[in-house]
Every structure is written in C-alpha cells, then in structure tokens.
Amino acid sequence: FLRPRGQAISTLYRFLDEQLVQNSRPVVVSCYVGIGRTGTVLACYLVKRGADPADAINEVRRLRPGSVQTPEQEAAVHEYAQRHTAGSDSAG
Fold first, then answer.
1. What residue spans carry the region label Disordered (predicted)?
2. Are 47 and 80 in contact (CB under 8 A)?
3. Catalytic pick among 31, 72, 82, 85
4. Which pTM does this prediction carry?
C-alpha cells in the first residue's frame, strides 16, 4: 500500500469537490477491488471535509464493509489528518 501523496491527491480532491459540491454529481471512486486503497482515499477526503479520522474510517466502513483494510491504511488516514490540520493537505 502506498499512501496518497502530493499533487495527485490534491487533484483528485479538487475534482471530487467540483463534482460533488459544485455540480451535485455522483462520483465513483475505485481501486482494483474497491476496498483498501479506495476506502483510505475516501476516508482522507472525509477528513479534508472536516471529519475526525476515526469517524471517517468508521463511516467508510459502514457504507462499504471491509474498507480501510490494514493498520497501515488506518495510519495513513490519521497521518493525512495531521498534515491537513497543519495546513498542507497535499504534503506527502
């Protein structure tokens, strides 16, 4: 598992904001299986939108059981929250 990083994640989150918030359009986000990496990226997006990291993970798991599969993926969400709180959601 590679943590979401840098410009790629910022670009994705700008796209999600544009589609979900500005255009009220649904967006499908999926990796190969649609659980581990997908859940991690979506939990980080919820953190970006103001959710507590643990709450974000729980919400993604509620909607897609099995999401955010590993301790490393959980840690990635918490690390993203720390970076985002520090004012740098695109930092690596």
1. 65-92
2. yes
3. 31
4. 0.77
